[in-house]
Write a structure and sequence with these properties.
The protein is of the alpha/beta class and about 325 residues long. The protein is built from twelve helices and twelve strands. The protein has a five-stranded parallel sheet, sandwiched between helices. The chain has a five-stranded parallel sheet with strand order 10-9-8-11-12. A two-stranded parallel ribbon has the order 4-5. The structure holds phosphoric acid mono(formamide)ester.
Amino acid sequence: MKQFTSVADAGDISLLLQEAFAIKKNVLADAQLGKQKTLGLLFLNPSLRTRMSTQKAAYNLGMNVMVINLDKESWQIEFQDGAVMNNSTSEHIREAAAVVAQYCDIVGVRCFPGLIDREKDYSEQILNSFLTYCNKPLISLESGTRHPLQSFADIITIQENRKSTTPPKVVLTWAPHVKALPQAVPNSFAEWAVASGAEVVITHPKGYELCEQFTAGARIEYNQNEALKNADFVYVKNWSAFHDYGATPKVNGDWLLTPEKLKDSNQAKIMHCLPVRRNVELVDELIDSDYSLIQQQAGNRVIAAQTVLKKMLQNL
Ligand code: CP
C-alpha cells in the first residue's frame, strides 16, 4: 500500500478486515516489522484519537514516531504554486514536504477544510501537495473530504457487532451542533459502509444533502423516524451544508436522537466518531447505554491504523 486517503486505496475490504482481526488477536505479533522505521505525523488541526491511536499502532509495530503540530509549531506553509511569498507564509510545501520525506519512512497528514471555498476544499490541495512533493507512503489523518482511518475503524466495529450474515441496515443520521462542521466523516463513512455491502440509509434535514459522489449506493430519507425503522446500526454525526457550502441552514423538527426514536429499530447500536457534544448531538442516556459502540470505535482506531501501517511497511 502506497497511500491511504480513501476507500479506493483499501483494496478488497473483506481482506483488509481479515487482516485487522488477525492484528487485533495479537497486536504485538509484528513488533519487529517497523524497527528502524520512522512515522511522521503532521497535524494542521487538533486531534486526540487520531494522534494517539496512530502513535500507539506505530509503537506496536516497533516504529519510531515524530509528531508535529504544523499549524502552531512550524513555519506557515504556502501551498500555491508560483506564489510570491511576501506575506505570512514562510516556507513552500515543495521544500517542506521534501524535507519531511528525508526524515520519515511513512507520513500522515491531517488537514481540515476551511468550509469557505468548496472548490478549494474538495480539490484536496493540501493532501495532494503532500502526495506530490513528499515521496513517501502517505496516510490521510482526515482531509477536506474524507476520514478513512475513522471509517475503517467504524467498519471493523460494525463487522464485530453484526448479528447475522445478511447485510446490516446502517443509518447515518444528521445531528444538531452549535457550529459548522466538515462533511469529511459522513462522506467517508457513507463510502465505506456502501463498499462493505451494508444497506445504507442517510437521513438529514433538507439543505444538508452531501455531495452525491460520496453517497452513491445509499438511500436518502428525509424522515428520520422512517429511516430508523429496523436499523441495526445508527451513526450519529453533524455536518454543515455541502451545496450552500459551510452553511448551517435552519432546521425544522427535532433531530436529536433519543431512545424513544429507536423503538422501531432492530435494537440498534449507536455509533459516533467522537468528540461528541453531550446533550447537543447525542443524549447522555444513549452515549452511556449498553447499545453504545462509541468506545469500541475509538479502540478500533488503533487496529485500523496498525493494519494500514503494516501494509505500508511490508511494501517499503
Ligand atoms: N474521531 C477523531 O478523528 O478524533 P480526533 O479528532 O480527536 O482525532
